[in-house]
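Appendix B, Record 12. Input sequence as logged:
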Amino acid sequence: MPSVIGLLEQREARAQEELESWLEVLGQVQEEVAAAQERAERARVANAAGSASVDIAAAGPVNGLLQLPGGGLDQPPTGGP
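Logged structural output:
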């Protein structure tokens, strides 16, 4: 019959192996999270840059027409007050 100390040593060895396994999984998940955060940041920056270029384009005349914020086109104002 194994001794209590021997059983505890076996249990400790199994627990250490399990801990190392979970630490490996944790490392992989952390790498995936970092990659996802990087992709999200790039998408946010690209979206912000796209919005800025749309705002600039909407502010200027397009072929003699003014582009309205809602996406419609209107004739530029003619004449004075």
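Residues 62-68 have pLDDT under 50 and may be disordered.
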